Amino acid sequence: MLSTGLTLTKAKKLGINAVATDFEDLQKPAFIEKNNTVKIRIVYDADSRVVLGAQMASGYDISMGLHMFSLAIQEKVTIDKLKLLDLFFLPHFNQPYSYIAMAALKAE
Question: Which residue, 37, 49, 56, 36, is CA-closest to 100?
Fold first, then answer.
């Protein structure tokens, strides 16, 4: 379990009009035998669309993804920019469409 920035509860307590998008998928393509589920939540400001925080959980080490979110928070990246994020694809490490981008695509 990993977290950076604000949780949805904390952002709302601070008076921010925060919302979250959630996504769950396998870490790697389904044909890979040793595979873990990844759960991700991206918290963002509904008004400015700026990313405020992220939480991720998996049995696989997905900690490098959290570094990207820390930078996104620092640089005030919007959830809409994350929808266009191009992350590398290698079948033994991840899906063709990153769970980060897929979670962002679910944002309203």
Answer: 56
Beta bridge partners of 7: none
User: Is the pTM above the cut of 0.85?
Assistant: no
Q: Starting at the edge strand that comes first in sequence, how are the strands of the sheet with 51-58 ordered?
A: 2-5, 51-58, 37-45, 18-26
Q: For residue range 42-94, what is the model confidence (pLDDT) as tens digits?
A: 999 999 999 999 999 998 887 888 888 999 999 999 999 988 776 665 655 65
Q: In DSSP terms, which residues pair with 57 in a beta bridge?
A: 39
H/E stretch holding 24 reads strand 18-26
3-state secondary structure at position 2: strand
Residue 15, φ and ψ in degrees, nearest 5: 85, 15
Q: Say how far apart CA 75 and CA 62 lie, in whole Å.
A: 21
Domains of the chain, each with CATH number or no CATH? 2-105 (3.30.390.30)
